Amino acid sequence: MSHALRPDELKGSLRPAIASLPDSGIVEIVQYGLAKPGVIPLWAGEGDMTTPEPIGDAAVAALRDGQTFYTYQRGIPPLRQAMSSYLSGVHDREIPPARIFVTASGMQAIALTMQALIDPGDEVVLITPVWPNILASLQIMGGVIRAVPMELTDTGWTLDFDRLTEACGPRTRAVFINTPSNPTGWIMSAEQMEELARLARHHGFWIVADEVYNRITYDTDHAPSFLEVMDPDERLIVVNSFSKNWAMTGWRVGWVVAPAALGQIYENLIQYNTSGVATFLQYGAIAALEDGLGTIETIRQQCRVGRDIVCQRLGALPRVRLARPAGAFYAFFSVDGETDSRALAFRLVDETNVGLAPGSAFGPGGEGYMRLCFACSPARLTEAMDRLEPALS
Question: Which residue from 273, 300, 369, 371 has the fewest beta carbons nearer than 10 Å?
Fold first, then answer.
């Protein structure tokens, strides 16, 4: 006699928040088109530049040196010191190692932070459209999302701060801000950050800031940061990653900057989730911080050229509406007459062999838009535009 359960019975025995998790709208398209010969993959948040050799060499040297054992849960001291020097220099204020915790990716930094803050029923105010993994990380913890959709106006993507204020209520546990924004390229101003900080102090909620794209800007060295407008011991957690600035997406190394008093909390969370980041990878991260500042400018310059190509080509199409992004490396655009972005993404893979991410994956305010990553070589982007133009015209 078989005791096997039906798939619906198996799912029914899981936590409802987990059983009801949606499939990633980005991964769905990637899996559909990745094996197609000649596909141009502009669906994910990475370019076509491989990790610079000095970073890889440092990790390989550490691996060969036997750096393969369990290590410090908060990150090895040399890396946390290097991160302190880097962040203190960028933000022109001391950010000591005691506030910095190394995580297995920026995504894990977000997940651990949600584990630390969110109980079922807690409300989190979230500016959307936003990277779908953030939405899912809140759903996993049973959080209630209070979305504040931005609007695309003649002056670009705009946040209605009054709507943000109105979304904050007695059950608000945190406000989550992604700036520069994935997918819109919007950047929160320092003035808005200060206003939100005052609101957080008044109501006693946390600000969680995803600043992964902080150095991918086109008019300044870096975007405004909450680290520059709030004190070290306030309710502020900033998450970041090595992925974007140093072409290290596959390495899965990120970090958290939080009040030093939370050090043992994050140490425990890291221990009980992954038991730390591989030591040899952390030595590669040290090389990125100490010798890879030129890589940031190289990536930024490639993105600047890519932005020009994509915005010029898409902007010339009468059906397309987009804003020139101030940060990050995405074009988030709508196409007149196209209201089902998921269907359009599948169709573009079939008809043009170009992969884009559907706006529906990015939560409230995202449907009707498509996300294109332009952190690629000019040749790849030009070929992609040649293929896309007939389908979007």
Answer: 273
Tokens of 69: 């054992």
Q: Are 109 and 241 in contact, with CB atoms under 8 Å apart?
A: yes
Q: Which long-range contacts (CB under 8 A, 24 or more apart) does 38-41 make?
A: 38/353, 39/349, 39/353, 39/354, 39/355, 40/353, 40/354, 40/355, 40/380, 40/383, 40/384, 40/387, 41/355
- Please report, to the nearest 10 degrees, the dihedral formed by the alpha carbons of residues 135, 25, 315, 339 taken in order: -100
User: What DSSP state is assigned to residue 50?
Assistant: P
Q: What is the largest CA-CA distance in the chain?
A: 69
CA atoms of 198 and 329, how far apart (whole Å): 30
Amino acid at 327: G
- Sign, CA dihedral 8-10-11-13, equals positive
Question: Do 159 and 185 touch, CB atoms closer than 8 A?
Answer: no
Per-residue exposure over 246-261, b if at least 16 CB sit within 10 Å of its own CB, e if not: bbbbebbbbbbbbbee
Q: Which residues does residue 126 pair with via DSSP β-bridges, in sequence order? A: 147, 176
- Show Cβ contacts of residue 36 under 8 Å, excluding neighbours closer than 6 positions: 349, 353
Q: In the predicted model, is pLDDT for residue 2 greater than 80?
A: no
Q: What angle do CA 33, 34, 35 make, to 5 degrees?
A: 95
pLDDT digits (tens, 9 = 90+) for 289-332: 998 889 999 999 999 999 999 999 999 999 999 999 999 999 99
In the chain, the domains with their CATH numbers are: 9-51+294-392 (3.90.1150.10), 53-292 (3.40.640.10)
Q: How far apart are CA 247 and CA 290, in angstroms?
A: 15
DSSP characters for 10-27? HHHTS-HHHHTPPPPHHH
Rg (CA), the chain: 21
Q: Measure the CA–CA gap between 78 and 280, rounded to whole angstroms.
A: 12
Is residue 386 very low, low, confident or very high in pLDDT (cuts 50, 70, 90)?
A: very high
Q: Is the pTM of this model over 0.90?
A: yes
Strand partners of residue 254: 103, 241
**Rounded alpha-carbon distances, angstroms, from residue 75 to 26, 36, 70, 92, 287:** 31, 40, 11, 23, 15
Q: 222-250, pLDDT tens digit by residue? A: 999 999 999 999 999 999 999 999 999 99
Strand, helix or coil for residue 123 = strand
